[in-house]
User: Fold this.
Amino acid sequence: MAAAGLAMPGLAQAQFFAPVTQPITGLYIGAGAGVNFADIGTLRATEGLAPAFRSRGIGTTGRALFEPGFAGVFAVGYGLGNGIRLEVEGNYRQNDVRKIRGFSGAGLGTRADGEQRTYGVMGNAYYDFNIPYFPWFTPYVGAGVGYAWREWQDVRTSALNGAAALRPSGTEANFAYQGMLGGAFNITSVPGLAVTAEYRYFRVLGGTYQTRLTSGLAPTGVTLAGGNLRAENAGNHSAMLGLRYAFNQPAPFVPVVAAPAAPVQQVARTYLVFFDWNRADLTDRARQIIADAAAARTSARATRIEVAGHADRSGTDRYNQALSLRRAEAVASELTRRGVSRSDIGIQGFGESRPLVSTADGVREPQNRRVEIVLR
Assistant:
């Protein structure tokens, strides 16, 4: 069915909507920084190193303790307009090594210096929760997988009272994963800009580092043995603050309910634009109707345009909700092309919840596949 439209002054009765933030649609960028806390790492001496440990009465398993350190991320992503976001992220974490201990026996020093650095590239997926009446706040959850490089830089233990010392070093790359929980505090005066606060759990699968056992303070001591030290439990907890900017975002839709109009005042005008089944593109007839609405806005001196998308009942609730938003976005974009400021347009999608014609589930009803343009 070709798109059609109709002006309906009789639909001017006041309607009450909860103010909501429009979900991110399109490209966005984000960055964050904060503090990270590395889990206690489990260490295990393997090839070459384990026999040397045993011969000196040193146990072959120990632990590495780390100081809190810096964490930073940068991401480029894309919002699908339904609360789902997909992104590519680069991250960096740094922690000083505080102590290496747990190896049984008295033959190994425990105080340590050096640092652990972690670099990662991740692919993430997020879901934003839209909370009515709180357009300034959007909580979200996310998860990601990728690859990370973990480097032990100048790590060495002490060698007090004649004890032996360890010097593990190198860079190990492995599979990484993470989970995120946070919230975006939307700057309503700058559409698309938000301050983010979040917690992240990040983990890299274990790595193996080349290690020397020396008779004195590494690296100057005599090498007694060489081999590998296996590091497990490479988890990390981070608390971060950041900024995110989504390009071409409309302002949060906060409709103003006007007082009852006096009889001499002009009532709101409504235009209807209809769509083909499962489509959100505009026909020539639809563009003409939208042009009429844009022209009527100027002549009627309307200060606000409300664009509400709808769908029939032939799909799932979730799909129809997303489809109704795409239809509303298509109409809003055409209004903008016709000279209407984007900040004067409020966009909503109602899915199949507000039909013009009541039908059973699954029925393709043409009159329910529409967008209502209301001039106020």
About this structure: Residues 25-246 form a domain with the Porin fold (CATH 2.40.160.20). The radius of gyration is 31 Å. Residues 1-18 have pLDDT under 50 and may be disordered.
